[in-house]
Amino acid sequence: MEPTTQGGNRTGAATAPEGVTAMLYIAERWSPPKAADVSLADEDRGRYIAASDALGSVPPPPTFKGMVKAGMDKMLGQRPEMLFDKIGERIAFERGGTRLYDALLLKFDVLASTTGVPDLPLLEGGVRADSPRAALLRIRAQEHAHFLMLCEAMRTLGGDPTAQTPCADVVGVASMGLMQVVTDPRTTLAQSLNAVLTAELTDTAGWDLLVQLAVQSGHTDLAEQFGLALAEEAQHVNTITSWTAALASAQIVTPAT
Predict the structure, then answer these.
(1) Does 81 map to a domain?
(2) Tens digit of pLDDT for each residue in 115-144?
């Protein structure tokens, strides 16, 4: 499906050896005898780092019941704000993941209508999908279900699932590039899947940490729910990994004529 094509060399230096030689000569001729001193720039950046405020804060529980619950946790030596922050992070990521699969589904439909449906492995975690699109729809539904479950978990703890925590802010910025890859009309399905795989690997690590924090905080019921989500995310990784490998292999091995 839409294989990587071979075209002209527009970025490599090998097409202009004389220019490379001239560039290297000029660099050697006019470069300062010593390496550039960037200590002043580092000091300037360091002052900004030292003087900057934190990237937001975890908001207090919006209800009296939530405040009492958070206060009790602190009396027991726990840090409920850390768990709130990481749940907020996963809320942001699962919401973004749902939108990421919406974009991937659109790209899949358009490319499938023009170049045909690719031959992709359909066995994922012991569950066989009817088609690649059905598998994508199921993964998208699971991402959305994880988002809803996390929102309810935040409410159970007395927090506000609509508040943006610091980690939610960070993960939202960090994942912007992945959405840009998938929504770029020039990227192939294989390239888009590779971006989604990056998201799934990050998501799996995030869920694993969230399970650990829930256990440490004594919320075993939440840890169990988070563990089920972690298992589904691991299946997502297996599926997307097998698809990226299949598309790459299809481009390397061509049928004999």
Answers:
(1) yes
(2) 877 778 775 555 566 788 999 999 999 999
Domain interval for residue 151: 59-252
Structure token pair of residue 231: 């298992």
Q: What is the DSSP string of 91-111?
A: HHHHHHHHHHHHHHHHHHHHH
Helix (H) / strand (E) element for 249: namely: helix 220-252
Residue 221 belongs to a domain? yes
The string of pLDDT tens digits covering residues 149-167 is 999 999 999 899 999 999 9
- pTM listed for this prediction: 0.80
Domain count, the chain: 1
Note the pLDDT tens digit of each residue in 242-257: 999 988 887 655 544 4
CATH of the domain at 76: 1.20.1260.10
Question: Is 111 a domain residue?
Answer: yes
How far CA 183 is from CA of 2, 135, 188, 230, 249, in Å, comes to: 16, 20, 10, 26, 24
Q: First-to-last CA distance in the chain?
A: 19
Contacts of 18-25 with CB under 8 Å at 24 or more apart are: none
**Is residue 68 one of the residues assigned to a domain?**
yes
Q: What angle do CA 181, 247, 231 make, to 5 degrees?
A: 75
Enumerate residues 6+ apart whose C-beta is below 8 A from 59.
159, 160, 163, 165
